[in-house]
Amino acid sequence: MSVPSPAGPPTVVALRALGLGDLLTAVPALRGLRRAYPGHRLLLAAPEALRPAVAATGAVDGLLPVAAPGRAVPPRVPWTGAPPACAVDLHGCGPESAAPLRALRPRRLLAYAAADGPAWHETEHERARWCRLLVHHGIPADPDDLRIAPPPVPSPAPGAVVLHPGADAGARRWPAERFAAVGRDLRAAGRTVVVTGGPSERALAHRVADAAGLPATAVLAGVPFPTLMALVAGARAVVVGDTGIAHLATALGTPSVVLFGPVSPALWGPPGLPRHRVLWHPGAGPVTARPGDAHGAEPDPRLLRITPPEVMAALDALDAAAAGRQPT
pTM here? Predict the structure, then answer.
């Protein structure tokens, strides 16, 4: 289904047909586009499931729903109006992701695959990557311009520590029993704990909660995005793997402990601020940015080197930083 052109200002179309974390890491670039084209309507081609999250960023004017299996490139962007003033490939580095934008006949195309595009750097942080694309073309963009406003709804569990055991791939999924061990220790320390997950992760969330001795009411899996966003915004801290919820915590300024395995935090990690703690054990030998398979089925060995006591120590460090004291 194509989206017809409304009467009104000219358009700018950006393509980012990926997941929640991918969307949030593109927010700084989208804001750069917004400032560069103040009289234009900025549209983002992204999956329909991200519509609430796209709206929550406040970075674009509308969504052009696109779909493709996995992380593939959608075959077309559903826009039938006048050619955009500018089309921007925030999806990939090859001609495949630029092709559906070229088909719109934009007056200007910004893409790594374009003849006038910059060189692609494999070891670049995702936020910096897309801002550099714009800067190369004379459009200022700040990778640290990533914060979004909390939703105007109350948290269902204000002040809770949020455990998010799920991930799209097993390689980035810390074992459920280790999340449960952290939950037990937090409960013993008198902390409020909730367990989150997507609609397909309810069973996993309940398994973690049961093993941690938490009531069924502590499971908030499959909740609407505004509720999830309010929960993260009002959390004491979030413990999470390298997933979209980690980027949501970053965007909302919520303290987080993020567990990395197959991919270096130098590519996808939070900013180096006291409210974020990154745990990663790349092992002996040369350290590479992608030492494992981010989409593998089994937990990555580097992820398995992280222990529950380390996570508890990181949470204590967050509490200490917030209170201005030394961690125990």
Answer: 0.94
C-alpha distances in angstroms, 221 versus 116, 194, 196, 209, 231?
Answer: 45, 9, 5, 11, 11
41 and 120 inside one domain: yes
Give yes or no: residues 122 and 226 share one domain.
no
pLDDT in the model for residue 284: 82
* Under 8 Å between Cβ of 94 and 72: no
Mark which of 102, 136, 170 sits at the end of a domain. 136
Stretches in the chain below the pLDDT threshold 70: 1-7, 325-328
Predicted local distance difference test score (pLDDT) of residue 86: 98
144: buried, middle or exposed (CB in 10 Å: 19+, 13-18, 0-12)? exposed
Q: Give a yes or no: residue 155 inside a domain.
A: no
Model confidence over 65-97: pLDDT tens digits?
A: 999 888 889 999 999 999 999 999 999 999 999
Q: Ramachandran region of residue 293, left (φ > 0), alpha (ψ -120 to 50) or beta?
A: beta
Q: What is the pLDDT of residue 71?
A: 83
**Domains identified in the chain, total number:** 2
Nearest to 269 by CA among 281, 257, 252, 283: 257
Domain ranges, residue 130: 11-136
